[in-house]
Amino acid sequence: MSKSFIFKVMGVLFLTLLMSLAVSSINSTIRERQYRQEDVKNQIALSSAGAQTIIGPVLVVPYVEQYPETITENNLKKTVIRQDADAVYILPEELNLEGGFTNQYKQLGIYKALMYQLGGQVQGRFKFHQPILPRHAGGTVYVKPAYLSISISDPRGFTDKPELAWDEKTIGFLQGTQLQALGKGIHAELGQIDMAQAHDIPFAFQLNLRGMENFNFAPIAENNKVLLRSSWQHPHFSGNYLPDPGTQKINSAGFEAEWRVSSISSNNQSQLTNGLKAQNAATAMTLESMNIGFIEPINVYSLSDRATKYGLLFIGLTFAGFFIFELMKQLRIHPAQYTMVGLAMAMFYLLLISLSEHISFGASYFIASLACVGLLGYYLSFVLKSKVNGAIFATLLTALYGALYGILQSEDNALLMGSLLVFGLLALTMVITRKVDWYRISAKPETPIAHADYEAV
Fold first, then answer.
1. Which of 23, 59, 291, 347 sits CB 3.0–4.6 Å from 90 for a disulfide?
2. What is the mean pLDDT of residues 82-104?
């Protein structure tokens, strides 16, 4: 085996690794732009509204208990009146949320964030089982005006002031939950509530709320029902509860999903009640919830990042094709020409990300691949001493870029399609070179090709 052949193989491998570093550098640029996108989302959330989490409503009935206590003072016994302040926290018996989302983008420069607007109706009922009993002998309970609290993670998302329909009355909500355990939100002052006998009180209110990308709802009632729909075609259902399979619909018209959760399948009631009594500010973070994520169908940064993962494969396959073509046709391809081709293929990814920030990803991919394939086809017709050979390589590159686009668009089957692509290319190479005598080719001295045999383009 000649030394020139060994040096050629080592040179091609070295150039392949060098070009992979160029692709890695472009990948770093893509990641930097992706981080910038996240920063812009945070800025938009600070100036508008972020992801929303709804907890409630919780009925709070404050009371004061006065009771006598005998104490000894200066060897004399006397009775004093003590007073303890506390509250009863009542969770709904039934809680239903039904509504729909509309979606739009909010843009800052070339970056944008996906926003949603919920138009929903919340209704349910509270059930009173028994009056508030004193905890001390001889104690008397004085019930104070009650209020209803709802935790909203970002109250700036309200597009209008909500009103509560409570037992045939209409009451406006006020800012703040008045409860440390619920954090931010709203509350409605209900006045005195008769706790002396068991009865039910229905409630309802409109929930018109703006948010960004994620919507969360914590089921805290005995029986919870949530029915949500939207024209958005790419929802991501997650959290502790998924929609009922029989009700979940995702199609070209959007999505519709229904959740049914009972207190038997959730420990939210005990966690929330304990957190309210302990005034634990971290309570809201520990509750189980159902989540809808509004996923962008084409995230240009994640798709571009995935595309660069195939950069080394594409450049390696192209260089391997050059090398095989060079040996079989006894051409002399200079390392500088390998380098030019590798840089042109690396530039595809830079063109892709820069174009996709201004136009659609599909159009960006088409323009970037067309530019690179056209340039390489023209250049290779000179390198390979034939317009036909240049056209053949351009056609093969077109097929490669087409296959890559299919892989990027099929996230669920990306690994399968990528594996089949690599296997197919390997099989094609083995079939083409099945009769090649590599020892004879590597041992044959290189002879220059007369330029007179090549017709200039």
1. 59
2. 92
Cβ-in-10-Å burial (0-12, 13-18, 19+) of 373 comes to buried
Distance from the Cα of residue 101 to its chain's centroid: 17
Of the candidate ranges 53-62, 65-74, 256-265, the one whose mean pLDDT is the lowest: 65-74
CA distance 155 to 148: 16
What's residue 223's pLDDT? 95
The Cα 101–Cα 363 span in angstroms is 29
pLDDT beyond 60 at 1: no
Please identify which residue in the block is written with the tokens 């509309």. Answer: 102
**pTM given for the model:** 0.74
Who's near 34: CB < 8 A, 6+ residues apart? 301, 302, 305
Q: What is the pLDDT of residues 137-170, one digit of tens each?
A: 888 888 899 999 999 999 999 988 899 999 889 9
For residue 198, what are its two tokens? 């068991």
Residues forming beta bridges with residue 64, ordered by sequence position = 85, 142
Distance separating alpha carbons of residues 280 and 89, to the nearest angstrom = 14
**Residue among 199, 197, 215 at smallest CA distance from 207:** 215
What DSSP line would sit under 279-312, residue for residue? Answer: T-TTHHHHS--EEEEE--S--HHHHHHHHHTTHH
Give the rounded distance of the alpha carbon of 339 from its chain centre.
38
| CA-angle at 49, arms to 44 and 54, nearest 5° | 150
For residue 89, give the amino acid letter. Answer: Y
pLDDT digits (tens, 9 = 90+) for 66-80: 988 888 777 778 888
User: Would you say 63 and 88 are in contact if contact means Cβ atoms under 8 Å apart?
Assistant: yes
Query: Three-state DSSP class for 43?
Result: helix
- Spatial neighbors of 456 by CB under 8 A, at least 6 apart, are none
Question: What pLDDT, in 10s, does the model give residues 265-284?
Answer: 889 999 999 999 888 888 88
Would you state the structure tokens that stand for residue 107, as one six-digit string?
């843009």
Q: Count, in order, helices (H) and strands (E) of the chain.
A: 10, 17
From CA 99, how far away is CA 61, in angstroms rounded? Answer: 29
**Residue 328, by phi and psi: left (phi above 0), alpha (psi -120 to 50) or beta?**
alpha
Residue 414 has pLDDT above 80, yes or no: no
Angle at 283 between CA 279 and CA 288, to 5 degrees: 155
> For the chain, how big is the Rg over CA atoms in Å?
35
Q: Which residue has the tokens 């259902």?
A: 237
The pair of structure tokens assigned to 170 is 């209409």
Q: Measured between alpha carbons, how far is 449 from 454 in angstroms, rounded to an integer?
A: 9
